[in-house]
Amino acid sequence: MTTARPSVPAPPSPTVREITLDADGVPLSGLLARPRHTPCRATVVALHGAGMTAGYFHGPARPETSLLALAADLGFATVALDRPGYGLSAGRLPAGQTVAEQAVTLTSALSDLTARYETGAGLFLLAHSFGSKPALRIAADGTVPGVLGLAVSGCGDEYLVPLTVPAGSAGHRQGSWGPLRLYPPGTFRASCAVVAPIPPRELADAARWPEAFARLAGLIRVPVRFTFAEHERWWRTDRRAVNRIRSRLHAAPRVLIDRQPDAGHNISLGWTARAYHEGVLRFVADCLRHDKTGEEQRT
After folding, report:
1. Which of 74, 164, 216, 219 is deepest in the core (most CB within 10 A)?
2. What per-residue confidence (pLDDT) applies to 6?
3. Alpha helices in the chain (DSSP H)
4. What's residue 112's pLDDT?
């Protein structure tokens, strides 16, 4: 029996516009949404996963799944960027970049962002799947001033399936999506607009991630939120794996590890996308409160 889904009203649609950031000569395209009637509280920087583009975060199938719309309604600006090797940068970087290289390129782009746009109290990094890797690296390197915190989904520290599963195969699709019932009708057709080829250097670098995370996790000194979908099929999410992730993030002031029920790997495209985004934005607001409290104590 198919369970009826409640009708969730879509948040007011903000003005979402295309932008291009300069990453030391490399153009990074993206989408920008800002609050319409209130000052910007902070700016969420959203980084998509492998084989997707920035449009992943703007509800290609259902308006209520848009992170950009919901965040603007709650007073946050959002910049969803096409990572290096995607969007406008694909012409300059047809083979893509490694995680370390992406972190450098994205850091340069975020410097351009903060120079050109009012970002409120600071930047918060939100990333999905492969986009979580450069985001975690940026947080560990500490090269972007004023990062309030970090939220990742669809990324762990130990793979559950072999990386030899061919992209586009049935096994790859099952791992990336999970059960079809987790997604609104029309999701797969609409998502064709945000699908892109995976750059080969990005794929080749993927096998090094478990060792890379083990090295960099202890350097992260901002609050971190991990979210694993109930039907996550790329990463180990058992208790042992979760405890290992938590212990490796020992320098982070707060570590929250959540599970999102009724969700597959592509968590921002499913029925529970709004619930997930609401949880992330509550975490952003919590980071703002803690940051303000710490500032008051320092003064």
Report:
1. 216
2. 40
3. 67-73, 99-116, 132-141, 170-177, 187-190, 200-205, 209-216, 239-248, 273-298
4. 98
